[in-house]
Amino acid sequence: MSSKSQPAEVETAALASGGRTLRIIDLRALAGSAFERLPCTLRILLENVARCGGPDAPQAIRAIRSWAATGRSDADIPFHPARVLMHDTTCGPALVDIAAMRSALAEAGGDPGRLNPVLPIDISTDHSIAVDAFARPDALDYNMRREMQRNAERYRLMKWATRALAGVRVHPPGTGIMHTLNLERLATVVSVWEGDGDTWAVPDTLLGTDSHTPMINGIGVLGWGVGGLEAESVCFGMPAVIRLPEVVGVRLKGRLRPGVTATDLALTLCERLRRIELADRFLEIIGPGVSSLTAGERAVVANMAPEFGASCALFPIDGQTLRYLADTGRSAEHVRLVEDYARRQGLWLDPAAVPRCTEMLDFDLGEVTVSLAGPRRPQDRLAAGATVQALAPLLAGRRRAGDVAQGRDQPAPPEDGAVAIAAITSCTNTSDPRLLVTAGLLARKAHRLGLAAPGWVKTSLAPGSPAAARYLQRSGLMADLEALGFGIVGFGCTTCIGNSGSLTSQIEAALDRGRVPVAVLSGNRNFPGRVHPRLEAAFLASPPLVIAFALAGDINRDILTDPIGHARDGAPVRLADLWPSGPEIDAALALAREPGDYAGSYDRAERSADWQALAAPESALFPWNAASTYLRRPPFATFGATTRLGSYRARPLLVLGDDITTDHISPAGAIPPQSAAADYLISRGEDPGDLNVFAARRGNWEVMLRGLFTNRSVRNLLGSGILPGSTIHAGSGHQLPLWRAAERYAAEETPVVIVAGERYGMGSSRDWAAKGVALLGVRAVLALGFERIHRSNLIGMGVVPLRLPSEWPPARLALTPGDSIRIDASAERIEPRGRIPVCIDRQAGRIGFDATLAVETSSEVELLIAGGILPLILARAMSADPPPAPPGAVLRSGAQR
Ligand code: SF4
C-alpha cells in the first residue's frame, strides 16, 4: 500500500513498537535486491525521497537503487530535512534577510505574511558569549551579563522572529552549544509524525547552518552543514538538491588503548582522512570496532567531519546509541521505538556487514596514541610529547640573541611557547561526559598535589551543555576544576569561535616583544588568529591535556615524560602521576549519571529571566532603526537583483593562494580598534573599547564589508606589499581597501573577479564569506578547488564558481593589476560542470583555457540564472502559493518567546 504523498511504487508497512503500530516506508521492498548493499546513509536518503515524493522522486529512487552497483552516481536527488538548526550568528543574517524580504514584499504591494518558513527552525544562542572574566566565582554571571548587554539588539531580532515567523524556536543564552543541545535534547533519531491519515515513524534528519552539524551523526541522525543561504531556501520549502553522494566507509577494528581519548581518535582520523579526497563525500563508520565506542565518543569523531574534509560521518545505531538516549533522559518508549525502527530499516549496526562503499579505509583503533594537533591546522596531528618540534618552524628566524629556553620550575616571564590560553571549550570535546570527567579527575589529583597554573595562563571551562555543570557537581569534580582556574565561564562557544576575551598582561607584553605564545584548547580548529587575533599558534587537545598544559605553563617540554610541575613536597609531578585510570573514570561517571539532569537543567536554562525580560517587537514587519549599528537592511534582499552571468572582461580584485578559509574571507573574532570596521562604528557613536566581534555584527553589511580578507595571514598575490584586505586599483595604481576599490570599479562599471588556489572557502559555513564577496561586486571566483559549503553559498549569492585547470595555479598565472580576464559565462553556457572559456591578457602574455563551472545540479543553474536564492524566494512569495511542509516535518507550537 502506498500513501497519497509518495510515488506509486513506494510500499509502506506497519511497525509494531511498544504497543503502538506505526506506518513506515518499506525500505526493503523499495530497494529490492540493492537493499543489503546500501550503506545506512543511502537507506536514509532513499526513505527521504520515497516519503517526501515530488516530481523527481521516481528518478531519485531508481538512482539510489543503481548506486548500489557501483557506489557512484551522477544523479541529483532532492533532500527534505525534517528540521533546520541555526545559531545566533548564522541565524542573524538569515533573519535579517527574511525581515528585509518581508519589507521588500510589503513595499511591492505583497503580503509579508506569505513569507514564512515551512520547517521548524531551532536557534541556539551560543556563539556570542566571550570569556571576559575567568578563574573567579562570578565569571559565569559576569560573562552572561556582558553577553546580554552587547547583543541585546540582535537578540531582540531573534525574539521578534519567534513571534512573527512560524516554527522558529530560540534557545536562550545558557542553554548550551547547538550541537550538544541537538545531541542531548533536540534529536529524536526516529520521529513520530501524524500525516496522510496515519501515524508514521520517520528518521530524524536535519540541515544546520554550521559546519559541525554532523556531530549528530554520532547517534545515527543524518544531517550536515549548509550555508545560511541554502538553509533559507530549505526553510521556504525548496528541497536541498544534492548530487547522490559517494560514501567512503571507515571500517574500524580493535579498541582504544587505556589512556587514549576520543579526542586522540578524532585527531588521528583527521590526519589520516585529510590524505584522501573527501570533498562532497559522506563517511560511514562501520566494522566491529564501532561497538567499542560510546555514543559520546562517536559524536566527538563525527563532529570533526568537516576537518576530515567530508560532508558528514554517519554511525549506525546500536546499544551504545540507546544507552546514550536513555542516559540523556529520553523515555523508555522512545528508546524502544528507535531500536525497533533501526532494526527494521537496516540502520542497526551489523559489525560484520560490508556494504557497498565508493571507497573503503581500514582503521585500527588500537593504533591511536595520545595526540595533539597544530600549531596551525587540525590535520597536523602530533604525538602529545612533540610540541617543541611542532612549534620550531614557526620560531625559525625569530629568535634573538639572548633568548633562553625557560625552565618551568620557577615562575618566569612567558617566552615562545608560553601557554596564553588553556581552554576546555567547544562542542567537540565537551559533549562527551567521559572527557569532562577525565579532565575533572586529573584536576583533582593535581589540586591535591598542590599544582597550579602560572598567572599568565588564561584558563576556562565552557561546556556545551548546562547538564555538564550538574554531572560535574554530582561527581564532586567541579570544585577541583574551579580550584585550578577551570570554573565555568559560559555555556557557549567562547574560545572555540575566537571569543576568548583579552589575554593576560604578561602574554600581551610577550607578544609586544615579538614572542610566540600559544593556545591549547579542546576545539576543532586552530587556524592562525581563530582563537585569538594575536595568537598565531594553537594546539588542539583533549580536555585533560588542556589542564596538563595549563599547569605546565608552556609547551616547551615533552608533556608525556617531563615534569609538569612540583608537588608541595618538591617532588616532580609528571602526566602519568595525574592521568586517571579507566576504572577511576568509570566510577566517577557512574556517580555523575542522572538522566533527569538533562531535562531539568535545560528547562531551567530555557526559562532564562533575562530572555523573558527582553523587549521585542510583535509586528509582522521588522521595524528597522536607521541608527542601528547591528541591524541594517541589506542591499541584496530585495527585488531587482541582476544575474552575474554574461560575457565580460574583468579585473582581478584579489589573487590568493591555497587554503583560504572562510575565516580569512570574513572574520568572526574581535573587531580590531585600528580597522576600517572600527572607524565606521566609532563614527556612529560606538565605544572604541567595546566594538564586539564581527560574528555579532553580521546583521550590519557595512561592518562586514569592511572586514573582508583583513586577516593578517591573507596575501594578495596581485602585487608585493599589498596590505591584508586591500588591492591595487587597476586604473589608478593606488592601493585601496577592497571595499573602496570595489566602489571605484562599480562606478566605472568594471567587473571584478577573485582568483584563488586549492580548497578555497574551507572552514566554517559562514554565508557572509559569500555575501561579502557578492557585495564587492565579484562576478566569478576562479579557484583550483572549492570547499563544498562555500561553493554552494557563492552560488546562493549568484557568484559564479569556476575551477581553474590544474596546470594554471594562481602563482603560475602571474597576474598583475593591469591584467584583464575575459570570461564567457553567458546563461546558455551554464550547465552542471560546463566548460567556460577564459582568456587572460597579461603583462606576461596572453593565455587561454577552459575553466569548469563548479555547479553540480540543475537547481544551482536555476539559482545562478535568477541571481541567487533571495531573488528566487521573493519571486515565489510574490507570485505563487508557498510550498507546503514536506511530510515528516512538523511546525511546533510552544516556541520560546
Ligand atoms: S565548533 Fe566551536 S564554534 Fe562551532 S558550534 Fe562547536 S563550539 Fe561553537
Please describe what this structure looks like.
By secondary structure, the chain is an alpha/beta fold. It is 34% helix and 17% strand. The strands form 10 sheets. A 7-stranded mixed beta barrel has the order 24-27-28-29-32-31-30. A 5-stranded parallel beta sheet has the order 6-5-4-9-10, sandwiched between helices. It is globular. The protein starts with 11 loop residues before the first strand and ends in an 18-residue tail after the last helix. The relative contact order is 0.12. The model is unreliable at 400-410 and 893-897 (pLDDT under 50). Residues 177-179, 210, 212, 426-428, 493, 496-497, 523-524 line the site of iron/sulfur cluster (SF4).
Short note summarizing the structure:
The protein is an alpha/beta fold. The chain is built from 32 helices and 32 strands.
Largest sheet: 7 strands, mixed, barrel
The shape, in one word, is: globular
Could you tell me how far the N terminus lies from the C terminus, measured between alpha carbons in angstroms? Answer: 42 Å
Q: Based on helices, strands and strand pairing, what is the structural class?
A: alpha/beta
Bound molecules: iron/sulfur cluster
| Average pLDDT rating | 93
Which descriptors would you attach to this protein?
897 residues, alpha/beta, 7-stranded mixed beta barrel, 5-stranded parallel beta sheet, 32 helices, globular, disordered C terminus, binds iron/sulfur cluster
